Amino acid sequence: MIDRRQFSKGLMLTAGTALFGGPGFATAALASEKFVSRVLVDVATGKTVHRDGPAERRFSPCSTFKLPLAVMGFDSGVLVDPHNPLWDYRPEFQTTMEQQKKATDPTIWLKDSIVWYSQELTRKLGEARFRDYVTRFGYGNEDVSGNPGKKDGLTQSWLNSSLTISPDEQVAFIRRFLDRKLAVSDHAYAATEASLAQFPAEGGWTLHGKTGSGFLRTAKGASDRARPIGWFVGWGEKGGRRIAFARFNLGNERSKTYGGMIARDAMIADFAGLAGG
User: Fold this and answer.
1) At 148, is the secondary structure helix, strand, or coil?
2) Which of 85, 120, 141, 243 has its Cβ near the most Cβ atoms within 10 Å?
3) Which of 63, 118, 162, 195 is catalytic?
4) How far is CA 43 from CA 48, 65, 240, in A?
5) Distances (CA, A) of 222 to 47, 79, 165
């Protein structure tokens, strides 16, 4: 059996180096690459309902990481319930997005994807506890070191930095969450579910999930706006049946719509068909 960290290292030396600033990024093939990957797995049986695209490849989780962060927050007691704590925005958070400059509770945080709330949460968790949760959850490559030489893993590791995860692994995490196999409190599971946004879909399905948007890095480490990535991760529920899902988009041109919104809207539209009705 291949060790998870050996697999991660091998991946980063091949495709992964191109994603995060390695020398292979400048090749023509990678510069023009574009694809969609979708994975749906029945939670109860573990049967793969649908899988397409390179679902084994790892990318930054971006704001989909707010879902495991919510579990950490509610389990640790830093977060209390879906509407507490309510934290005020402070200028030192330095967000450039006006819509994020507002008082935020866990439900608002997840719905509006407030970055500074995530970072305030991880600061309160502290490096040791944060790292322990990521390892315990078996989340992606488990690398929370952050950007090389910057010692910013506590607040940046999931934002186009060191932490990466594949669509397959996203779905595996959702199944562990729904099966209550993350070794956290019952309150952490229940409060996270209650705080997460819901989206009606065709065929009577209700999707529970979190988007994530970002960009690949150039060889110099800058965000490449022509290489948008987008996630929508969660589960669909209908008549007692639950299907864990992940959709990932990689684009090769600038877009006026965030990648996560593209992934979310497409999955909502496609879910019933992919799930078999």
Assistant:
1) coil
2) 243
3) 63
4) 9, 20, 11
5) 39, 33, 20
Widest pairwise Cα distance in the chain: 50
Residue length of the chain? 277
Please say whether the beta carbons of 209 and 230 come within 8 A.
Answer: no
Each residue's pLDDT, cut to its tens digit, for the chain (277 residues) gives 334 433 333 333 333 433 433 333 334 456 689 999 999 999 999 999 999 999 999 999 999 999 999 999 999 999 999 999 999 999 999 998 999 999 999 999 999 999 999 999 999 999 999 999 999 999 999 999 999 999 999 999 999 999 999 999 999 999 999 999 999 999 999 999 999 999 999 999 999 999 999 999 998 889 999 999 999 999 999 999 999 999 999 999 999 999 999 999 999 999 999 999 8
How far is it, in rounded angstroms, from Cα 275 to Cα 40?
7
Contacts of 6 (CB under 8 A, 6+ apart): none
Token reading at 217? 């890095």
Q: Rounded to two decimals, what is the model's pTM?
A: 0.89
Residue 121 Cα to chain centre, angstroms: 16
**Residue 255 annotated among the catalytic residues of the structure:** no
Measured distance CA(261)–CA(189) in Å, rounded: 25
Non-local (6+) Cβ contacts of 135 within 8 A are 142
Amino acid letter, 69: L
Amino acid identity, position 129 = R
What is the Cα–Cα distance from 235 to 64, expressed in whole angstroms?
Answer: 13
